[in-house]
Amino acid sequence: MKNVFIYTGNVRVFSAVLAEVKSLIGQALFVLVTGAAGLGKTTAAKFFAAHEAWIYCYTKSMWKNTPIWMLQDLCFELGVVNPIPKRRKQAFDGVVAALRVCGNPVLIDEADKLSLELLEVLRDLGELTGVSFILVGEKLLKPKMERNDRFWSRTIRSVEFGPITPPDILFFSREATDLNLEPEHAEMLHHASKGDFRKIIRDLS
Prior knowledge:
alpha/beta, five-stranded parallel beta sheet, 53% helix, 12% strand
């Protein structure tokens, strides 16, 4: 199977949201991209982060309520590594300084794992730097943000990835495997996988 990236319906929506964020650089906003596991959110986030030279950071389970670990990971992604600060204030100041220089949005993947304390830290970083944060995660992320006015009032857009469609399956199969599936076969794959992109990739491998 070829390593290809295709513009599914979900990806086109993601791309349109990122274009909106680019037009609002400097406004310290939140954008939410949510959906069930297996729909291609992480692949899209990594692709666009690399394409735009934006920062991508994956939420670790060990971050929990420990901002220093999140800040140190952000330091690493931002190149504040000589050395990575060991104290919370030094790490926070290092991230602020680096974000002020680059000015680009930051994509935080698996953001549904973020505690309210960590979301407050991201809000502080945005306020001090004008940088927006694109939070990518599963469906629990949106209600978590909605329950807090400080977060929700800064959220300009919330989009949800849906199951991959039969036309997406046909296109992916053609581009990634050189197989020209019949529409009924794409429908069968769609039904069996319930639109889970990971399962479709597995079944076509």
